[in-house]
Structure formats: structure tokens, C-alpha cells
Design brief:
Blueprint lengths: L17 E6 L3 E6 L10 E6 L4 E2 L2 E2 L7 H15 L8 E3 L10 E5 L2 E2 L2 E8 L2 H10 L1 E2 L2 E2 L9 E7 L2 E2 L12 H8 L1 H23 L3 E13 L2 E5 L8 E5 L15 H8 L18 H19 L8
Helix pairs in contact: 1-6, 3-4, 5-6
Length: 307
């Protein structure tokens, strides 16, 4: 409808027929209202905003079209992974105000674990390795550097910390204690298989998937893939032709945002505890371009907002 108001993507909109349930750093959750007007307990509307976070702050300036790019990318990946694991998607028929960046999904009993798999050493895994030669309790060979590739992907789970707090690494034994040995084994194996499948597909498009984080829910005893999957917000994507172990790799995510915030140009002190300043147009444009490039290279399609 042409006269439907467009809700600013950095706000949690009021949606007729839906009850607002929760807003995280970059997503808003709603429950559809039933015939009586009460929120349903079997479905959720998952809205990906254009908000972007860095260094545990939600930045004042949204990245145009980010929510739509990530939503469409997840939907594409759900199709590529359909033979490995069922997903939570019910419908993409959503309110016009959030069309393109929202999905109606089944409400699941979510695992209290961030399921992470790594094919390359970097980020938090690198910090753990440098401290004691291990990642999530897995002993690794000596001599690895930032960007080193593992012989096989490894499962490196973490806690699900409340907003504003850091996730903490978990050992596999801790995952077993949290969800039981059967669910732990299935979650581990599926996470590694998702990274492996994603890495194979991305490699054909010149992209390395260094690591990824996925979330699972349980429905009738079956693990179901939920939230987002294999996006630049949940994974590290590197251009394959620029991979060079020994230093941080260029990426398809918030690289420009982080670099600008840490540069003298921003005037921001990361240790000050104060919120970062608004992002300049150039940084927003370059960041948006990276998200769009990742989508187009992976899917082979052209990103046109609103389609």
C-alpha cells in the first residue's frame, strides 16, 4: 500500500495486531495477537532493524537497508541448509511497515547456549589460544597465528549473556551439563555441519566463512535452526583472495565502523564508558556496501530495497 507509513528502522515500531515482546541490540520481537486480542504463545514476529552495534554499544546512526539485507540473506541460507536442519520460518507475509526485514517464526524452547563453530583462528578464539593454547577447552597445535586455518572446524560454544554483558566461553562438558549429552552432541554436530556447508558454498563465491554463531530451539524433541544464519552479523566473512594469516583479515561486516570509532577522526575513547558518536555518511555508505556485496556475491542476486 503506497500510503502505509514507513517506520524508522532504528525504532521499535508499534504494529497493529502485534504485541511488542522484546528489543535487543538490533532485533525487535513481537507476538501476533489472536482473535481475543491476547498475544499468541506459538509464534513471534522477528524484525531485523537497521541498528548496528559496536564495542557493546548500539550506535546512534542506523545503517540503511541492513535489516533487509540480513533478513533476505538468512532466508536464502535457510533454503541452502534445508536438508541439514529444519528452521523456524512460518511466513514472510508481515506488516507493510516492516516488510522485507521481518519474518513470522515459530516460538521455540531455545537452547541456553551460543553454538559457535570456527574454521579459522581469530577474534575471541585467538585471545583464548594466546592465553593457554586452547579454545573452549580444545587443545590446539603450537604456532598458530591470527587467521590460521584449522585442519577441521571446531565447536566452541559460549554462554548467552544478557544485553550489555559479554558471552563467556564454555567447554563441551559445560554444554552437556546445561542441555544434556544428547542435545549437546546434536547441537555440536549440526553447528559444525552448518559451518562446513556454508563454507563450501561461500568458497565458490570467493568468500571464506571463518566462523559462525547459530541458535537452536527445540520442538517436539527436534533441533530447529532459529534467529539468523550465516550473515555478516553472526559470522566472519573474509574475501578469499586477500586471506593472509598473521594479522586481522579484511571482512564483510562492521570493519569500517570499528576502524573509524578507534581512529582519531571519531574523537571517541573506547575506554571512556561514553557512547560513541554518530557515524559519518562515508562510513555508513561503505558499511552498507559491504553488507550488500556479501549478499550479492553469495546469492548471485541483485539487492534492490523493498523487493
Amino acid at each position: 500500500m503506497a500510503d502505509t507509513p514507513v517506520i524508522p528502522p532504528h525504532a521499535a515500531p508499534e504494529l497493529p495486531g502485534y504485541a511488542h515482546v522484546y528489543s535487543g541490540k538490533v532485533r525487535d520481537l513481537y507476538a501476533p495477537r489472536g482473535d481475543t486480542g491476547a498475544p499468541r504463545d506459538d509464534q513471534l514476529l522477528l524484525v531485523a532493524s537497521d541498528r548496528i552495534s559496536a564495542f557493546d554499544f548500539v550506535l546512534e546512526t542506523p545503517v540503511p537497508d541492513k535489516g533487509e539485507v540480513l533478513t533476505r540473506m538468512s532466508l536464502w541460507w535457510f533454503e541452502q541448509l534445508a536438508d541439514l536442519v529444519p528452521n523456524h520460518v512460518v511466513s514472510t507475509d508481515v506488516p507493510d511497515a516492516v516488510r522485507g526485514r521481518a519474518v513470522l517464526v515459530r516460538r521455540l524452547d531455545m537452547l541456553p547456549v551460543e553454538c559457535v563453530a570456527r574454521a579459522y583462528l581469530t577474534g575471541g578464539g585467538l585471545r583464548e589460544y594466546r592465553a593457554d593454547g586452547q579454545v573452549s577447552g580444545i587443545a590446539l597445535p603450537d604456532g598458530l597465528v591470527d587467521g590460521s586455518r584449522f585442519p577441521e572446524p571446531i565447536f566452541t560454544p559460549s554462554t548467552k549473556a544478557p544485553d550489555g554483558e559479554h558471552d563467556e566461553p564454555m567447554s563441551y562438558a559445560e554444554v552437556e551439563a546445561a542441555v544434556g549429552s544428547d542435545l549437546a552432541a546434536r547441537a555440536r554436530d549440526l553447528t559444525v555441519r552448518i559451518l562446513t556447508r556454508g563454507g563450501e558454498i561461500a568458497a565458490e563465491r570467493g568468500i571464506i566463512v571463518a566462523d559462525t554463531k547459530v541458535e537452536f530451539g527445540v520442538e517436539d524433541g527436534v533441533l530447529v535452526l532459529a534467529d539468523e544464519v550465516l550473515t555478516p552479523d553472526s559470522s566472519r566473512f573474509w574475501p578469499a583472495d586477500r586471506w593472509e594469516p598473521g594479522h586481522p583479515q579484511p571482512s564483510f561486516d562492521k570493519e569500517f565502523v570499528r576502524e573509524w570509532l578507534l581512529s582519531p577522526a571519531s574523537g571517541w575513547d573506547k575506554g571512556s564508558g561514553t557512547p560513541p558518536p554518530p557515524l559519518p555518511d562515508e562510513v555508513l555508505e561503505r558499511t552498507r556496501a559491504k553488507y550488500v556485496e556479501a549478499y550479492e556475491r553469495l546469492t548471485g542476486g541483485t539487492f534492490t530495497p523493498g523487493r
